[in-house]
Design goal:
It is a single chain. By secondary structure, this protein is of the alpha/beta class. The chain has 2 domains: 141 residues, no CATH class; 245 residues, Rossmann fold (3-Layer(aba) Sandwich). The chain contains 13 helices and 16 strands. The strands form 4 sheets. An 8-stranded mixed sheet has the order 10-9-11-12-8-13-14-15, sandwiched between helices. Strands 1-2-4-3 form a 4-stranded antiparallel sheet, with helices on one face. A two-stranded parallel ribbon has the order 5-16. Strand 11, helix 10 and strand 12 form a beta-alpha-beta unit. Helix 8 runs parallel beside helix 10. The longest helix has 24 residues. The radius of gyration is 30 Å and the shape is globular.
Length: 424
Amino acid sequence: MLFEIGSTILVGGLTGYAYLKKNGSASNDADKIQKIFANSDWNGVNGETIRIHRKSKFNGGTEYVYQLPLGFDRKKIENGKHILEDGLNIKQKLFDFELSDFFNIKWDKDFLKQLKNILLQKKVVRKEIELKFDGMLRIKVYTESMKDQYDWNESYLRNGTWSVSIGNTRKGVVRHDFDEHKHLIIAGATGYGKSAILKLIVTSLVLQQPDNVNLHLIDLKGGSAFQRFKDLKQTKNFTREPSEAQGILEEIQAEMNQKYTEIVDQGFEDIKESGRKERHFIIIDEAADIADDPGCMDIVTDIARRGRGAGYYLIYATQYPSSQSIPQQTKRNIPSRLCFVLDDATASNTALGQTGAEKLPLIPGRGIYKNVKSQVVQTPYISNGEIKKQTKPHIVIKPRKERETVEPTEREESGSNTFEFEEM
């Protein structure tokens, strides 16, 4: 009886502590943020401190709203976002457990051993933050991490549009509308989602606009990403050889110039105003392999500069973002970017125009999508099997070329049996 009463009191106290541990105290994070401001010397020009205006709970975290001193450069905090996150995630307590850990305790002779294991276990629950400035500095502190994977399904499609799902946030799905934002630069280290999002974009375009999309696929990684799309009826060009890239780009440029002239001569500003439905997507995977070819890069820059008017949209992807692989003229004409994890701030700044990609967690599909403003997204995952299933109705089996028939050989006169040979 005493054991049962004692254990009930003990577990009651522990579960209460676990609840507080899990949900935390808003004032604790508020105090930490204030100390981080002070230790990082984030003050106004006259030494004025950043003052909290209000705080409020929301599902999954707390929002802190701060009044910034006059003349304060908010980019100090935006660029130092990792300092805030790291500071909020410093562990200062010995124990790390949750309420649900106690639900599976078996009340037997091993009770104390089970309790000890719970008390001494360590868990990694990393808080994440989101910054926003609208005259006030808003810092949202999330007590749970974003999901590591969102599986693709048909709800991501918007039939009849040129808008594709680019990623998930805590608030919902982020889409990139090519008719509004035209081109897209994609960068990221190998294995973290660059080729996967390219396959997702191609699949989405084919399913949403099967009769109007034209694909020009230049896969300079040996064809591993686009090989599965080469027999689609929507694929007009496909190559995996850098030596063939310039010929294809020259053909695309000639068609683009012709269509642009037709549209302008008809009195329209661009293809959208003209009412034409077809669109052309020039998708280059591992563009660094043609970056030292002036002929190719001149055409790529021209497509980025003038292609939007004729409905020729460029998706330019590389795992080695540098001033050479992404020329300045190309960047200026493509403000929309999607960047996965990179090895340093220089590469991030080249690809995104800002740092941050080097601080992303090593999670495939986790990236930063920038279109006016930047936001962290988790791109939807679609398997190769699902791609095959979805695109199978659009595969065209090209007719085989007629083979030349070999003339029958003359009959052998010397043998008792004669044979004729011809190619079957």
